[in-house]
Structures are given as structure tokens and as C-alpha cells.
Specification:
55% helix, five-stranded parallel β-sheet, alpha/beta, 216 residues
């Protein structure tokens, strides 16, 4: 699912945009209504598209682009402006802004622009989100191999599945669960949260819930 953040001084407009995008299956991760809060929002970088008003209190949008965004970034920037001043648009374009929308903005146009800009962005596969460098990911793979042979062990995590994985890897049972939880935490921050939310679930999965999900 696409993730969008909004920096817009009009709280009413920001909430309206969020409601519209949410209905269309787009996640709005954060909203800021001034430049200072917008700077903190940018530092999180948990979005695919940033909707940015150029006129903001404290720090204006162009300054945010110029001073607080990396030139090489993995997200798109769509700027709102009530004024189509050519010099401002030229400077913003030179700084890497991807698109401009003049106010008043049309909600459907915002959505269409977001989707058009992101149509070539590939959603990471699940196995790309769980790092193979982590012990917990290895234990997840072991668990799936065991469950393919004996799926009933999904109901016996602590009594049967964890001990079997522990024996395979010459570790204690407690470290198996701890390592798997660590892998889930890491994957959650790398994009698994969005995949999980697409399933209509909004809290981080337990180990049992994850394994059940992977078995489908």
C-alpha cells in the first residue's frame, strides 16, 4: 500500500485529504501543519509520497526542500501552491520536486497524481523484508519447513515447535522465540507493517500469527 505524508498549514484541508486518500486505500502516515513539525516529519522518512504546501508557518516549503531533504531520495514530492510564480517553480524543480498542484486542489487529482508518480515503485516481497542475516529469520525458515510436514505444530509453539528449532540450531528454546520476535520487529519497520495493515490488521503479529500468515 502507498504511504503518504502531508505538510499543509490548513488543518481542515489536511484532514480532508487524509480522509479521501484513506478511502482509496492509501495510508496517510503523518500530518504536519507548520514547517517545524514538517521538518520532524521529513526526518522519519516513513512515506512514499510527500504532499508539501510551499507556504507554511516557521519554515516555508521551499526551505524544507532545499535544506532538509536529501537530493537523492526514495520518495516523491508533490508541492501545493496558491501562486504559480515561475521563479519559485523553477527553483523547486531544480531541487527535485516531482510535481506541482495549484490550489484549490482537487482531491481526485491528488490521488491520481500520487498513483501516476508511484506506478513504477515495486512493493518489496515479504522475503525481502525479513533479513537473512538475522538468526530469527533462519528460525522462521526452519519453522516453515517443520510446519509443512506437521502443520498441527502451529498450535504447539512452546511445547513442540520451538524446542525442535532449538535442537536443530543447538540453542536454547527461549532464544528461538526471542530471535524470531527480533526479526519481526526489524521487518515491521522495513515495510511489513503496511503489508499487515493491507490484511486489515493493525497490531504487530505474534510469532504464531506470523507463521499462520506465512502458511497460507
Amino acid at each position: 500500500m502507498l504511504r503518504v505524508a502531508i505538510i499543509e498549514d490548513s488543518k481542515e484541508l489536511a484532514v480532508t485529504i487524509k480522509a479521501h486518500l484513506t478511502k482509496q486505500g492509501i495510508i496517510v502516515t503523518d500530518i504536519a501543519n507548520n514547517g517545524m513539525d514538517g521538518r520532524q516529519l521529513i526526518e522519519k522518512r516513513n512515506f512514499d509520497v510527500l504532499l508539501l504546501d510551499l507556504v507554511l508557518p516557521n519554515i516555508d516549503g521551499l526551505t524544507l526542500v532545499k535544506n532538509y531533504m536529501p537530493r537523492e531520495r526514495d520518495y516523491k514530492v508533490i508541492c501545493f501552491s496558491a501562486f504559480g510564480k515561475e521563479s519559485v517553480l523553477t527553483e523547486a524543480t531544480a531541487l527535485g520536486v516531482d510535481y506541482f498542484l495549484l490550489k484549490p486542489v482537487d482531491l481526485d487529482v491528488i490521488e491520481q497524481t500520487i498513483r501516476r508518480l508511484c506506478e513504477h515503485m515495486a512493493e518489496p516481497a515479504l522475503d525481502e523484508l525479513f533479513s537473512e542475516k538475522l538468526k530469527g529469520t533462519q528460525y522462521i525458515n526452519d519453522a516453515m519447513a517443520i510446519l509443512q510436514q506437521t502443520p498441527e505444530k502451529i498450535e504447539q509453539l512452546t511445547r513442540s515447535l520451538y524446542p525442535e528449532i532449538a535442537q536443530l540450531n543447538d540453542v536454547n528454546t527461549a532464544s528461538v522465540e526471542r530471535a524470531i520476535r527480533h526479526s519481526i520487529d526489524k521487518a515491521w519497520k522495513q515495510g511489513f507493517e503496511q503489508k499487515w495493515q493491507a490484511e486489515g490488521k493493525y497490531t504487530k503479529p505474534t510469532v504464531g500469527e506470523l507463521l499462520d500468515y506465512l502458511m497460507r
